[in-house]
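hey m, so remember when u said the tokens were messed up on ur end? i reran from scratch. heres the input so u can diff it against urs
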Amino acid sequence: MPQQSPEERIRNFDEVPLGYDVETAMAEAARCIRCENPRCVEGCPVGIDIPRFIQLIAEGKFAESAAVMREANLLPAMCGRVCPQEEQCERLCILGVKGDPVAIGHLERFIADYERLEGTGETPEIAAPTGRKVAVVGSGPAGLTVAADLARMGHSVTLFEAFHEPGGVLVYGIPEFRLPKEIVRWEVDKLRKIGVTIQTNVLIGRTLSIEELMKEHGFDAVFIGTGAGLPKFLKVPGENLAGVYSANEYLTRSNLMRAHRFPEYSTPLKHGRRVAVIGGGNVAMDSARTALRLGAQKVFNLYRRSRNEMPARIEEIQRAEEEGVELLFLVTPVEFLGDDQGRLAAIRCQRMKLGEPDASGRARPIPIPDDFFTLEVDAAVVAIGNDPNPLIGRTTPELKLTDWGGVIADEETGATSIPGVYAGGDIVTGAATVIEAMGAARRAARAINEYLKQKK
């Protein structure tokens, strides 16, 4: 797929990959050999009929292809951009045994963009009203998916979002250069067209409780899809110095609150000269690449394992390196050092070595005694993962939680310990992919529908 050059893209927040044109998309689709047993479908968490939608692209039947896509995936423009197809559907493509697999993700993006830009999409058929009301808490991938499914089943759906703009992690967590926000807004508008009511600036657990939604506001069922947005920290000295951010705050300020356009928008964000980002996942890559676009002269990525263990997508790591991010492996911060005004000035780091695999299956990083160095920086972003926000758990005592604060829910139905309350996505599994959250939401929607049918 064509993309902006590194020299050009670090000066803007525009999307990096430019997308397929019609000829390229049809040529790529023609590479599919139409397997009798298409294993690629097995790798898709929502079960898209991949051979069928690709065949229709090869035939130039783009509207029909988009319709097939939306039978299973309600957010193809987003999934085509941010989902790790290389670890899911494309990993099982038979062509990948001896060469490159079919670029399923790129084709998914193409057909969704074609539908959006050409206006070929049709409003889906809505079932007759059932008279049942469902509250959906959180408007990320899981919330958007379950809301759409339940609305199409004829239920009255109200989606509650704590922020001032719906989209969840899709708007606050993923930078514009990976997922343009106009696409998220387009998908959200499609929900409104099928009757979903969206209420922003409503923090469930504070503005309203789960109990109040059901007993005082008359909702027959509730779906919790609030994700995992509570940042983890290193818990080392100096982490409260000015200039040390969690990735959540750093990206939310830039993405959702437009800090990269300050003072046009009123949210400030420190534009560091030398920036360190700690972590090895996609969020770390997003933070490092954002720092470059905010004008950093040098950006370091500190990761306590080796390159082979990095959980970030390969293409995101490659793009970060192309843009000038310096990757420092087998390194972990042990102290943030400040100046006499309480501002970050440097990070004291310890070198690591790899030991036996831990619970994640990756080699465990082990500190090397007395092997330290100091890295001068004036801003740092901690991107080492997230836990669920504890607010709903604290205000809903009947809701059973895991030791790490996630909601305990049935894997197939999303049912929780409270009758009529369901959950799915990162709030249940911990941080995962957009498409996995959508898969859980679709299963929950079917279960909620059955529950509402049986409820007197």
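this time it looks ok to me. The mean pLDDT is 94. if urs says something different then somethings off w ur setup not the seq
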